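Hello,

I think I submitted the adenosine monophosphate job twice by accident. Can you confirm which output corresponds to this input? Input:
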Amino acid sequence: MSCPGIVHCGAGYVSLTWKRSKFSVSEDGSINVKGAYFDTINTIRAWCSTSTLDEALAECQKYSELLSKTVPGSDVWRVNHARGETVTVNEKTMAILRLAQEVSEASGGAFNIAVGPAVELWHFTDGMAVLPDAKALADAVARADFTKIRLEENAIRVPPETLIDLGGIAKGYIADRIADFLRERGVKSAMLNFGGNVVTVGNKPDGSSWKVGLQNPLGRRGEDFWAFVESRDSTVVTSGIYERGFELNGQWYHHILDPRTGWPVQNNLLAVTACAKSSMLADALTTAMFVLGPAEGSQLAEKFDVDVVFLEKNNRVTYTEGLNITFVG
Ligand code: AMP
Ligand code: MG
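Support: Only one job matched these inputs. Its output is below.
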């Protein structure tokens, strides 16, 4: 199929030919590496040996084989090919599914892992820039009923017409696990960024807390920040319109879908950032809050005791009191 538009897919993932970068050493002594997993580029910066980082990347590979919807035999792949049968899955997958369902209920379906069929129609990860057929999209939305997903102790059953998509929550879970892995290896200082899920391990080596830059959605990626939030053994997660999407005929189509319509959410938001202890929770919540907008989204954040900041197109910023945020400029 042709690709008539501009595609932005997980920091350039579509054109990627490597699985992981070489190690580089920064002036401050940290080792940096990038891995291409989970349809995006994941970075780790840590004060540790390269062999520890090699092990961390091997863990990423394992999580990809467990949770990717496109890897044959993964838990998600088996669920989506089960035609309505119950599927036994790994306890890690179960932990993600349980929280996904909890956030779905708490957000009135704004977060919904049953959006899988609608996500497929948008082809966000394969570099195409084409609009889905309206009838097919309406049909996919009709099938996106998360209340029909049944969870048992170590198994899941989804209706035959439904596909699950953990793209809005899994990277947060994996970032939490890889940060724990580094802590278990004795790493005292590290920062991970897994597709918008930043997790910090400890403080910076000089004892100061990490300052996590919030990407200016319209600026240069990784260089242009509109604010900074402090983080120490915690997570800073952003859902934004710039993370993934494509431009077609002057219109930008981003990857966060309104489960009621199957279309990219159309509100005034550019980005939502949550600060919390659990990156999995913050990941699910930022996706949900993007759909809900600042007013309802803040109420959801409060329910889960998470701090949050909303950035809107008119530069309006709304944030919760507990957030340690410094604005640029
Ligand atoms: P995030 O970047 O964490 O906000 O997640 C966006 C990803 O989650 C998309 O690329 C889809 O795979 C999936 N997704 C899109 N819309 C939703 C939604 N409303 N609820 C749950 N997952 C979604
Ligand atoms: Mg998310």
